[in-house]
Amino acid sequence: MGHQRLKVTSILWSNMSRLKQESSPKLKRHFATSGETIPTQAQVVICGAGAVANSVAYHLTENGWRDVILLEKDKLCSGTSHFGSGTLGLFKPIAERNIIMYSIKLYRQLQEKGYAIGFVQCGSLNLAQTKDRMIYLKRRMAYNLPTGLHCELLSKNETRQLHPLLNTDDIEGSVWVPEDAVAKPQEICRALVKLSKEGGARFYENCTVEKVLTENDRVYAIKTNRGVVRCEYFVNCAGMWARELGERCDPRVRVPAYPAQHFYVTTEPLAEVTAAPGTTLPCVRDYDSAIYARQWGGGIMVGGFELDAKPAFASHNIPHTDWKSQLPQDWNHFGPYWDKAMHRIPALRSSVNPVLTNSPDNFTPNGKWILGETPEVGNYFVAVGMNGNSLQGAGGIGKAVADWIVHGPLPTPGQHQLLPFDVQRFLDLHNNRNYLQQRVTEVVGRNYAILYPSQSEYRTARKLRCSPLYSVLESRGAVFGVRMGYERPLYFDSSYKLLYLIYGPITIVINYLLSCCRCLLQSRSDRVVDYLQNLCSNDVNIPVGGIAHTGMQNERGGFENDCILVRQSENSYFMVSPTSQQTRVFEWMRKNLPKDSSIVLKDVTSMYTVINVVGPKAKPLMAELSNSDINLLPFTYKKINVGYASDVMVMAFTHTGEPGFCLYIPSEYALHVYDRLMTVGKDYGARDVGCLTQRYMRIEKFIPFWAEDLTSITTPFEAGAGHRVKLNKEYFIGKFALQRQKERGVEKRLTMFVLDNMNPDTDIWPWGYEPIYRNDQFVGTVTSAGFGFTLDKLVCLGYVHRGGGGAAGGGLGGGTGQIVTTDYIMSRDATYTIDIAGRRCLATPHLFPPQPPNAAIDAPSRRYRPTLVTSLKT
């Protein structure tokens, strides 16, 4: 694929000279320039010249791409990159960690080449003041250790031995990460500039990118204050100006990142620090105090990730010049964190003149980097949103984006780990300036927070996408979470004290799927069938009224979408897919549409409210409500009237593995339908439940979910969904890769694990990412976990590969190259354990759910034992 992309690139590039003479009048108008001449064409234009931009340029030149220019509105390395702590921390979730690990490797190489970048591998101490924090650190240790990171658990005394200046009296202990490092951000910027220039890249200062010019929704030129540059690719590395630059494109490009004020203090040389020349103290991260500290020359630097941060430039647009003078030193804001720092490192009290610096940095709505090709404009890439530390990600991000440009979008095991950072995870709402200003006040502090599953919900920028049922559900005790801006009930509790609602011996539950992505596909002929048959690995040429559960695969056979398709007429389908991938899925389908506009693809998500009616008495309830026959076969649907509401789609498919129906209700009828369901449903024992119940039900029924168990490099055969792949079809995207895999076998297999010897009321629960061991050998990682109501046990899903995969295999997308068979997984000689915060828990493997995933809709009521958890004992 890489060679194909290069071939296409060379063909396109050979036309650039011709295009220069045949430029449109629109482009010719932009050629009026003043001042120094810049090139009129380049293969790649990068906006910005900070650490990330320079890393992208360097890695492009390392790939042999020499026609690269960087445009900087000020001086090279003068933006927010020259601020920053210079800390390089690996004790992260694995996707971030692997990017940072490459950065450290690159910076070490720069130091070895003679660049004075101040790189020191001094290690870090990650402190725990509470038992909860210690368990949280043990969780992170558990999945980092077998996947390539050395770390050690230390007592408070051992912690102080490594850092004699620390007050450790009030801590539980720490985790020591010896591979962590520090470096000088500005010197690394300069080194990357020099190496990029040696590779052929050209840099231009005092050159402002004013607009990205597009044609047929692809980049074709960049308008600057000094002329227009034709190009094939554009990379937006404009830091805190990136969002504004995206707004100046037609069509507008979403880059949802906004700067928060970010503070650090540096001291003069301190006697306690200079007492041991030639040594560098470890970095310290005191999460519970929301501060970090590192040696800074002969003194100390202290920074913080404040729990209530302040947006930068809140009252006006981000200035392009003299922006540093508009950021005040705010001791009132940072003072409490400085007090905590002096408590942790008493030597700071001797500082006579501590200097506070306000160093803004871009933060994103969910605190993760923004990378990749934008959905709105082809060949427009972004690499922004460094969330308080641009240096630690810059090396690896530059390589990832350069590889993406050079080799194309097809996922590899390395690229799979970029999925959490993909720019396509956002909607327009995330790019709203007011939304971002609110959200960054909270995102900053979440860097160091314990993010309890389904509890650590965002407080800011809420109540944005609300169902018509929102108010009535809130009055009934719904506790809401947010997904893609949608407010969705997680659980119901009138006292607002229960953490989870687990449903008991009842006959019907009413579950709200307020946040599914829904699309309508139509054509005037049967071309929509051909289109979907080309995209889908299952056969979707089903009878009208039928439902097909299918994947949409990429060329490697991985999932680009996991959805259900409802055939409403000969030439019309209704699609339901995961909310979190609303933009990604829509763009994947849009890019594969025929060019003649013969098929209409429409996002109709907001037109419907979705309610699951689940349980053995769902059928008689729906029959009474509709006064109609509800004898639907599995995977079929019909439109019915419910009360006074018309055209309610009733699907014999519930997303839970349980009998019942999924109702797709025109939103204007939602309140009425809900009222009738609950009023008539009283006689059937109906009650409200939230999304957590549905989540745990699907895990117990071994139903994998997109972005957790299914990704762009997991295939249906690996996920146990090979029965939904129809290789006898003439063609579909990914067919040949799946044919080869079926013939050869899979290198990993999604497996269900039941934790038999755990007490869910007292033991620590799995959260995901826990390592899986087979006979004490690391063989995979948990992808999702929850409580199984019918099993009355905790349940995990995770991919198992042959042992010895390390970080690559780890169940994180890769394998070891060795085939995994049913006999290997289910061997009686195999003992499985899952490491939950340092405790190995026995686990029983299953390749199918322990009980049938679907009961007949007329079957007798199965009773569920209620387990009301009043606290999480972690």
Task: Report the average pLDDT across residues.
Answer: 88
- The residue ranges in which pLDDT falls below 50 over 5 or more consecutive positions are 1-35, 494-506, 805-813, 852-874
CATH class of the largest domain: Alpha Beta
- Class by SSE composition: alpha+beta
- Our count of domains comes out at 5
Describe the structure.
The chain is of the alpha+beta class and 874 residues long. The chain has 5 domains: 43-81 and 186-257 and 366-426, FAD/NAD(P)-binding domain (3-Layer(bba) Sandwich); 82-184 and 265-310 and 334-356, D-Amino Acid Oxidase, Chain A, domain 2 (2-Layer Sandwich), CATH 3.30.9.10; 469-514 and 608-695, Probable tRNA modification gtpase trme, domain 1 (Gyrase A, domain 2), CATH 3.30.1360.120; 517-603, 2-Layer Sandwich (Alpha-Beta Plaits); 746-857, Beta Barrel (Elongation Factor Tu (Ef-tu), domain 3). The chain is 26% helix and 26% strand. It contains 23 helices and 40 strands. Strands 1, 2, 8, 9, 10, 11, 20 and 21 form an 8-stranded mixed β-sheet that branches. It is globular and about 85 Å long.
Brief summary of the model shown:
With 874 residues, this protein is of the alpha+beta class. It is built from 23 helices and 40 strands. The chain has 5 domains: 43-81 and 186-257 and 366-426, 3-Layer(bba) Sandwich (FAD/NAD(P)-binding domain), CATH 3.50.50; 82-184 and 265-310 and 334-356, 2-Layer Sandwich (D-Amino Acid Oxidase, Chain A, domain 2); 469-514 and 608-695, 2-Layer Sandwich (Gyrase A, domain 2); 517-603, Alpha-Beta Plaits (2-Layer Sandwich), CATH 3.30.70; 746-857, Elongation Factor Tu (Ef-tu), domain 3, CATH 2.40.30.
